[in-house]
Write a structure and sequence with these properties.
With 281 residues, this protein is of the alpha/beta class. It folds into two domains: 3-28 and 63-149, Dihydroxyacetone kinase, domain 1 (Rossmann fold, 3-Layer(aba) Sandwich); 152-278, Hypothetical Protein Tm841, Chain: A,domain 3 (2-Layer Sandwich), CATH 3.30.1180. It has helices at residues 15-19, 44-54, 65-76, 94-102, 118-133, 138-148, 162-166, 172-181, 204-218, 236-249, 262-268; strands at 3-8, 23-25, 28-31, 34-37, 59-61, 81-86, 109-113, 152-153, 155-156, 183-190, 193-201, 227-231, 255-259, 273-278. The two termini are 30 Å apart.
Length: 281
């Protein structure tokens, strides 16, 4: 079976998308009256500059049903079966629009709600690519990917809460207190939506060290195939510290570094960092 893997730009796969021939459907990032395509003609620095200048976050928009129909048609017309991976349906209307578009193609397009975002979504896509390389068919790939979704650890630590406050995800008092006391909450996916849990305190390096130790304690059994260290243009020293600590703590076959795209960056701000992987049952 000729299969084409596709995904929303929110999967934050960076160069690994092209390496695995995963075609990307960009969401839109809106700065004032101007609309840009995530990963195409906007950079994280553009977003930082806009927020610094205006004090407001960019808006984001999902592709329309017509956009998805046009996107899928390119591959179906080539005789391919499409498996598309969406950002969590609880975070965007992208999944619903993709599902409606898929109905036009008579079973030639499968649409998966990854119930994740960023490289948590990317992990599901990469697993599908592994399965495709093993010769699995479309229905088997879809079934396996839907089964593993609850086991994907999608979590990260923001440096500051300014962007979360501007996005209405925390109060002004919480933001000021956290920034003053150097509190960095753990933000993680729970059944497709982001929730705040553990509160770490201290420098980002100290918090990342504790965060990785807590992940090891929470997930003693995990898929050793790969891990993503994904960040929103974080300090290089912090990124390298996280990678080194993951190497010391876990036994992944590969540790992949990716930088969050415009949609994810616009919600979490600079210097946010996450360690993402698939847990075992």
């Amino acid at each position: 079976m000729n299969i084409q893997l596709t995904a929303d730009s929110t999967c934050d796969l960076g160069p690994y998308a092209a390496e695995r021939d995963v075609r990307i459907m960009p969401l839109s990032v809106i700065l004032g009256g101007d609309s840009f395509l995530d990963g195409v003609n906007i950079t994280p620095q553009d977003i930082f500059d806009y927020v610094d200048k205006t004090g407001t976050l960019p808006k984001t928009a999902a592709p329309s049903i017509a956009d998805f129909e046009e996107f899928f048609a390119k591959f179906v017309d080539e005789g391919k079966t499409v498996i598309h991976f969406n950002i969590s349906a609880k975070s965007s209307s992208s999944h619903e629009y993709a599902k409606q578009a898929a109905e036009k193609f008579g079973g030639k397009v499968f649409v998966i709600d990854t119930k994740a975002l960023s490289s948590g979504q990317g992990l599901v896509v990469m697993k599908a690519s592994d399965l495709l390389r093993e010769g699995k068919g479309a229905e088997e790939i879809v079934a396996i990917c839907e089964e593993l979704r609850p086991r994907v650890n999608t979590s990260f630590i923001p440096d500051r809460l300014d962007y979360l406050y501007k996005g209405g995800r925390c109060s002004r008092m919480t933001m000021y207190a956290a920034n003053m006391l150097k509190i960095h909450p753990l933000i993680e996916m729970d059944d497709g939506q982001l929730v705040a849990s553990t509160k770490y305190r201290g420098s980002m390096q100290k918090c990342v060290e504790k965060y990785i130790a807590d992940l090891a304690a929470k997930y003693p059994r995990y898929d050793k195939t790969r891990c993503f260290v994904t960040h929103s243009t974080a300090d290089p020293e912090l990124v390298q510290f996280a990678i080194d600590r993951v190497k010391e703590t876990f036994a992944f076959d590969e540790i992949l570094e990716t930088v969050a795209g415009g949609v994810v960056t616009g919600h979490c701000g600079r210097n946010t960092l996450g360690v993402l992987f698939i847990a075992e049952d």
